[in-house]
Write a structure and sequence with these properties.
Chain A is α/β, with parallel strands linked by helices. Chain A contains 19 helices and 16 strands. Chain A is globular and about 75 Å long. With about 450 residues, chain B is an all-alpha fold. Chain B folds into two domains: about 120 residues, no CATH class; about 200 residues, MetI-like fold (Orthogonal Bundle). Helix content of chain B is about 70%, strand content about 5%. Chain B has 23 helices and five strands. In chain B, helix 7 crosses helix 8, helix 9 crosses helix 10 and helix 12 crosses helix 16. The chains are: A alpha/beta (about 450), B mainly alpha (about 450). At the A-B interface, helix 3, helix 4, helix 14, helix 18 and helix 19 of A face helix 3, helix 8, helix 11 and helix 12 of B. Chain A: InterPro entries: SBP (IPR006059). Chain A: It comes from Allosediminivita pacifica. Chain A: One of its GO terms (molecular function) is maltose binding. Chain A: Belongs to the bacterial solute-binding protein 1 family.
Chain lengths: ~450, ~450
């Protein structure tokens, strides 16, 4: 007993001595959503920054110890549930890497802290980040997060299949421009892949391979038919019934034409990846980052020789060819201590340096966050990122930061599922969405 | 009940010694019941009561679960403008200014800001005011004694700032008082309106039930739930359970024990493992599709590839779990049938089928009713096997009420967790369950079952 007492006293004494020497020990936890094998630098960049910060502290003559503990979730449902519930239980990680659209609800609920209170956005490296990305990380006049990556969503086309139905090299080359100008529409796409199926180039039901689960991707088709998610001036959400009907009609028609199966939604991701990488689809849509997965995990070798890439085509006269970017952002949890948040914020700023962020961008085939990053040799030498930055990135827009957007999103996807599986016809499904969103959100939404 | 009804009880009451004898027994009974009551309170009454309360709120991710705060944000002011609040009022409320005077410097000193830094601020900026807090912050950063850490400088700067925007107040009075000093020209009525609208927490509402009653999705969910519970119950939990019990009743004992144990496997396998095994069984490249390909039948992902096969898979995989429960109960009940009745019927030349129809089934009425009642309630509230397998798909074709409630409240892609709406859906399930229980108790004549035996044994 005496021994224990003594050792406890000794430990306390040692502790106070250590405190006097100003040793600071921090454990910074990072949780990252939608993060697979290729995107490990979402967390590792924080570790690299921690190394650097400890060195800098040593140079200043301070004793600083930072341990970074990361946890990656491959999906979004579980991750968002975990973050929300952990925050409510005051047990959240210090740094959360999530989609920018979570800033709305999480900031209103007081689950996150505005990062602008902890770092300067007018000093390097945060001052080099693209202003439109900073915009997506802002809400209610405050900057809540630091953009971690960006991307473009893409319509991919099988070059061998296009050649097999008689497209010339020129026609394939000019497809991107024709899509961008609105000349080549979604209806033309269905006709093209139908022709592939009819001629036996592509198997029946495999002409078109859309994303297999919910995602920002489906808002692109809403925009293809002239839909606007929110009023750019007031930020109010807009439910465009005609655009929803057009989009639902397009997918119902694709099912009708048998270019995609009625039960495509809910297919396993791996099955979709295998088909995409093997060229089993005539056209399919995904994101810039998928190229890395197909090459690293699914055996696609000659991407540029086999795959053409364009914006998502326009659906009708009212719409436009478009692409959605969905920047992930580093956020600060409100359950950390002030000191932990200050350290976490500085780590985030350091991890946003062009050379560190380029590791993530190139490995996961995401677009960079700053102009300076395009000058980093690793990034500049990547053919795909250069090509995507030129052809797709300038035409991207992001989904709105609005705490009510989730309600609209859930309703939009339910309508899509019910018209896709034939449970409801497109016009009725669009009307249902408008009714239910109006009922839930009242004056906070405009129905057109 | 009249006091004459039970003379023995009356007698016990009048005789003191016998009451003294009874007291320790009833206290012991209470003590023995206490853990059960505690568990019941913690895991049933309390959750049901909370569900009942949450069901009448708009609790969600953006309101948070605990108490809300009072925050005036630019978005809120715009909304108030849309609702007709004057622009003069809105402008007054959104005013922000920075003043460096003796009072604010003293405030900063009291808050623990570094003295040398404050001396510099006093020397350079005393008596000045700034319209934009960001200008002040930039000027502060030029001071030689400015803190290295951004957080320290910004929190020091904030002490000189007068603004209500984006600040969280825990009480309405706190915000109201701040608004009064900041914008005294705003009328008390307008101020009250701002304070009321600025509350970020959940509010009481009956909207969840209105939405459930009016949305078209409800009808589909109800239909799906009926189909799921009805088909699983009739085909498997009761149908297959009974069939197996009768078949095993006629098989030799060793064999029947073996088969009973085998049928228990789905029940004792951990649910996640069980779901994974079904995926191997029904997915592309799995057992069934490969078998189908060999015999020339359509081969695809049966779990998710078509609406009909998705339903069939979902009902079968749930049914296999439930069938074992019926099997055990029915087997027990079958053994209680006096075997002499079967011997007698055989003497009379009855076939097996006649024995089942005329002797066994009539005596199985209560076990069948019990299994039906019990399993209806557990199927109504179960969603985990569906969630792990079809996940309500393809599309939303196999989504049942309990799964939708779970997804609405706790797990969906957009992270928009609507706890209030989910609780309303769960409350509907609780009410349906309670009503069904009452009906079943009447059908069982529960009072008779637990009543005084007609004869003393």
């Amino acid at each position: 007993m005496t021994f224990h007492m003594k050792s406890a006293a000794l430990a306390a004494l040692l502790g106070s001595v250590a405190f006097a020497a100003a040793a600071e020990d921090y454990t910074i936890t990072v949780w990252s959503g939608g993060t697979g094998d290729s995107s490990n630098y979402r967390i590792d960049a924080i570790s690299i920054a921690a190394e650097q910060m400890m060195r800098e502290a040593k140079v200043r003559g301070e004793d600083l110890n930072i341990t970074v503990e990361g946890q990656a979730w491959s999906g979004w449902d579980d991750f968002k549930q975990a973050v929300t519930l952990a925050s409510e239980a005051e047990n959240a990680p210090d740094i959360i890497v999530s989609g920018h659209e979570d800033i709305g609800p999480w900031s209103e609920a007081g689950l996150i802290r505005p990062i602008e209170d902890y770092v300067y956005f007018d000093t390097w490296p945060l001052n080099t980040i693209y202003p439109n990305l900073i915009q997506t990380a802002s809400f209610n006049g405050q900057i809540w997060g630091v953009p971690q990556d960006a991307e473009a969503r893409v319509m991919f086309w099988s070059i061998p299949a296009l050649e097999a139905i008689g497209w010339s090299r020129d026609e394939i080359e000019s497809l991107a421009d024709r899509v961008q100008s609105g000349e080549f529409t979604l209806a033309d796409m269905v006709d093209t892949v139908k022709q592939m199926q009819d001629e036996g180039v592509i198997e029946p039901g495999m002409g078109f391979g859309p994303r297999v689960s919910n995602g920002p991707d489906y808002w692109q088709f809403y925009q293809s038919f002239g839909g606007e998610m929110a009023d750019p001036e007031t930020g109010k959400l807009i439910v465009d019934t005609a655009a929803l009907e057009g989009m639902y009609g397009f997918f119902a028609d694709a099912v009708e034409q048998d270019v995609v199966s009625q039960t495509h939604l809910g297919t396993e991701w791996d099955v979709w990846h295998q088909n995409a990488a093997a060229g089993n689809y005539g056209a399919w849509h995904g994101g810039t980052w998928h190229k890395a997965q197909w090459q690293n995990q699914f055996g696609l070798e000659d991407f540029f020789g086999e795959v053409q890439y364009t914006l998502i085509p326009a659906g009708n006269e009212a719409g436009r060819a478009n692409s959605i970017t969905h920047p992930l952002v580093y956020l600060l949890s409100a359950t950390s201590t002030e000191d932990e948040s200050a350290i976490a914020a500085e780590l985030i700023a350091m991890a946003s340096a062009p050379d560190i962020n380029a590791l993530h961008a190139v490995k996961s085939a995401h677009l960079g966050i700053s102009e300076d990053e395009t000058q980093v040799p690793l990034y500049a030498g990547d053919e795909w990122l250069a090509a995507a930055s030129e052809r797709l990135a300038p035409h991207t827009n992001a989904i709105p930061n609005n705490s009510d957007f989730g309600t609209f999103w859930t309703a939009m996807y339910q309508g899509l599922e019910s018209s896709w599986t034939g449970a409801t016809d497109p016009a009725e499904a669009a009307q249902n969405v408008a009714d239910s969103v109006k009922k839930s959100l009242g004056d906070n939404v405009v129905v057109r | 009940m009249s006091s004459f009804a039970d003379p023995t009880l009356e007698g016990a009451r009048s005789s003191r010694p016998s009451r003294a004898r009874r007291a320790p027994v009833s206290r012991l009974g209470l003590i023995l019941m206490a853990p059960a009551m505690l568990l019941l309170t913690l895991f049933f009454f309390l959750p049901v009561a909370l569900t009942g309360v949450f069901a009448f709120t708009d609790l969600s991710t953006s309101t948070g679960i605990g108490r809300g705060d009072y925050v005036v944000t630019p978005n809120l002011l715009r909304e108030l403008g849309d609702r007709g609040m004057s622009s003069a009022d809105l402008e007054a409320v959104s005013r922000a200014s920075v003043t460096v005077d003796a009072e604010t410097i003293e405030r900063a000193r009291a808050a623990g800001v570094d003295g040398r830094f404050l001396d510099d601020i006093e020397g350079d900026f005393l008596g000045r005011s700034f319209d934009a807090p960001s200008d002040f912050e930039r000027d502060l950063r030029r001071l030689r004694t400015a803190p290295r850490r951004a957080r320290d400088l910004k929190s020091a700067a904030a002490l000189f700032e007068t603004s209500v925007l984006n600040q969280r107040f825990t009480t309405s009075d706190g915000l109201s008082a701040k608004l009064e000093t900041l914008a005294p020209e705003v009328t008390p009525a307008a101020r009250a309106q701002i304070v009321d609208a600025s509350y970020t927490g959940a509010r009481f509402t009956t909207e969840n039930f209105e939405r459930l009653a009016t949305q078209k999705e409800t009808a589909r969910l109800v239909a799906n739930t009926f189909l799921y519970v009805g088909a699983t119950l009739s085909l498997f939990n009761v149908g297959l359970g009974l069939f197996l019990a009768v078949v095993l009743f006629y098989t030799p004992k060793g064999m029947s024990s073996l088969f009973s144990t085998l049928w228990l496997l789905p029940r004792i396998t951990p649910v996640v493992l069980y779901a994974v095994m079904w995926k191997w069984f029904t997915w592309e490249g799995g057992f069934l599709p490969i078998l189908a390909e060999q015999v020339g039948l359509p081969s695809f992902n049966y779990m998710k590839g078509s609406v009909v096969t998705a339903w069939a898979t979902m009902i079968t995989l749930n049914g296999f779990i439930g069938a074992s429960f019926g099997l055990i109960l029915f087997s027990g009940a079958l053994r209680a049938i006096p075997v002499q009745q079967l011997w007698a019927s055989e003497v009379d030349g009855a076939s097996r089928w006649q024995q089942v129809r005329r002797i066994i089934l009539p005596q199985m009425r209560w076990p069948i009713l019990f299994v039906t009642a019990y399993q209806t309630l557990s199927l109504l509230s179960s969603y985990e096997q569906i969630w792990l397998t079809t996940n309500g798909g393809p599309g939303r074709t196999t989504t049942v009420w309990a799964l939708e409630a779970f997804k609405t409240a706790l797990s969906n892609y957009t992270g928009n967790l609507e706890y209030g709406m989910g609780a309303a859906m769960a409350l509907v399930l609780v009410v349906v369950g309670l009503v069904l229980s009452l009906i079943y108790l009447r059908l069982f004549k529960f009072n008779e079952l637990v009543g005084r035996p007609k004869i003393e044994i």
